Amino acid sequence: MRPVKNWTTTTVVDLAMVLYGILGVDEKSQTVTSHIWSTMYWTNEFLTWNCSNFCGINELSIPRSKLWIPDITIEQDASDSGSILEDPWVNLNPNGSMFTFSRQKLTFTCRFNLYKFPFDVQRCNITFVSMSADVNTLVFRSVKDYLNLMVLSKQYMVTQGEWDLRDMEFLQGHITNGERNHSTLVYIVTLQRKPFLYVINFIIPLVYLLVLDLASFFISVDSGEKFGFKVTVLLSISVLLLILKDILPSTEVDLPIIANLCAAVFTLVWLSVLESILVSFLFNVDRCCDKQSKMCAEGKRFMKRTKGPKEANEETGHVKPEQRIFPLGQLGDVDLLKLILDEVKAARQEAGSQRKPGCCRRVAKIIDNLFFVGYLLTFVAFVTYICVEWIEF
Ligand SMILES: *[C@@H]1O[C@H](CO)[C@@H](O)[C@H](O)[C@H]1NC(C)=O
Ligand SMILES: *[C@@H]1O[C@H](CO)[C@@H](O)[C@H](O)[C@H]1NC(C)=O
Ligand SMILES: *[C@@H]1O[C@H](CO)[C@@H](O)[C@H](O)[C@H]1NC(C)=O
Ligand SMILES: *[C@@H]1O[C@H](CO)[C@@H](O)[C@H](O)[C@H]1NC(C)=O
């Protein structure tokens, strides 16, 4: 039974928990694996002695199984049984105060808020509660003050990996379970993620890919590279999306900003691929028209040329061979000049039709420019929004 002389006396259990390792955080299952070391102090009113009567012995160790030990569980505990290592002995002082410690690889559940991932700060509760004892018979208290626990935890922290222990507070209270109230002691652990890896590995590539996509507007459509380039950028972004899928849980409330960022970047690049398809289509339409009109022009010129010499033949009465191979010496000065003028005119016409863009081509250029401006503005606005969301804490 509970070691008190008067049964209404409340046994006060002083608890101290030191966190000395954060082994891993699983965002998918929302658990934190840690190493904790907890010490319990309480008083056994029956086990007291006077040192001077017993050769000055002022400490005793008694097997745990022979004594009453407060039953304690951790509410958020999700670890396998068998990961607790308890001190097999309980240390006893002459005034009846005793203490025991245990160390444990504790996996506790914690509801993460990943909205600001990877710049997030998580507050997790580790609640110590007695399973059977009432709040009137057993009360938990924190033995050390908050600063001490923080300092101890920081001092003993062996491994913390990706996370940084920012703060550790405790709160005494009780929970109601049916008719009974159970005393609780809640340690509120504040963990901050070290975001650097994600910044290097994820955010910077994403932004760079977006900038590349933006830059691809300056690749000329005629080179034929543009389209392939854009699709490659799209594929790279989808690889990043796959990585993200492995990290984040699929909670629908409070979708992390980074998921929005990815979706938006993906959409932007997708739109720009569509746009470049449209532009290249318009260019092709134009090129076909060009070819047709050029063919018409060639045809007309050909007609003219074949008609010209014939008329001349009829007038002058002697046969002329093909103009280009006509020996210049046999032509008069006026004829020669006319010939040169004709050639120059034809050449100019040809060059003009090539330089002047067709209607479709002009529309495509306008679409391209408008889209580029829109894209750039969206990009700037979006980056600003993301930065503001991430920075304000
Ligand atoms: C312990 O025993 C000594 C000697 O018998 C006595 O003087 C002293 O008062 C005792 N102390 C207590 C706390 O009873
Ligand atoms: C009992 O003795 C220990 C060690 O001498 C001391 O730390 C503790 O405060 C004492 N407890 C009480 C209730 O006097
Ligand atoms: C953690 O404990 C505090 C105090 O009991 C409570 O207000 C808070 O809601 C708890 N947080 C979670 C995530 O359970
Ligand atoms: C438990 O706590 C609540 C709130 O403090 C209180 O109203 C209630 O009477 C308590 N129940 C018992 C059995 O002590």
TrEMBL record:
Identification of the protein by name: Uncharacterized protein
SUPFAM superfamilies documented for this protein: Neurotransmitter-gated ion-channel transmembrane pore (SSF90112), Nicotinic receptor ligand binding domain-like (SSF63712)
Domain Neurotransmitter-gated ion-channel transmembrane, chain residue ranges per copy: 203-306
Source organism per UniProt: Ilyodon furcidens (goldbreast splitfin)
Alphabetically ordered keywords of this record: Ion channel, Ion transport, Membrane, Signal, Transmembrane, Transmembrane helix, Transport
Membrane-spanning parts: 196-215, 257-285, 370-391
Principal localisation: membrane
Residues annotated as signal peptide: 1-24
Span of domain Neurotransmitter-gated ion-channel ligand-binding: 1-195
Annotated InterPro entries: Neur_chan_lig-bd (IPR006202), Neur_chan_lig-bd_sf (IPR036734), Neur_channel (IPR006201), Neuro-gated_channel_TM_sf (IPR036719), Neuro_actylchol_rec (IPR038050), Neurotrans-gated_channel_TM (IPR006029), Neurotransmitter_ion_chnl_CS (IPR018000)
Superkingdom in the source lineage: Eukaryota
Subcellular location: Membrane
Entry-linked Gene3D superfamilies: Neurotransmitter-gated ion-channel ligand-binding domain (2.70.170.10), Neurotransmitter-gated ion-channel transmembrane domain (1.20.58.390)
Keyword Cytoplasm (UniProt): no
Family, per entry: Belongs to the ligand-gated ion channel (TC 1.A.9) family.
Membrane protein topology class: Multi-pass membrane protein
PANTHER family: NEUROTRANSMITTER GATED ION CHANNEL
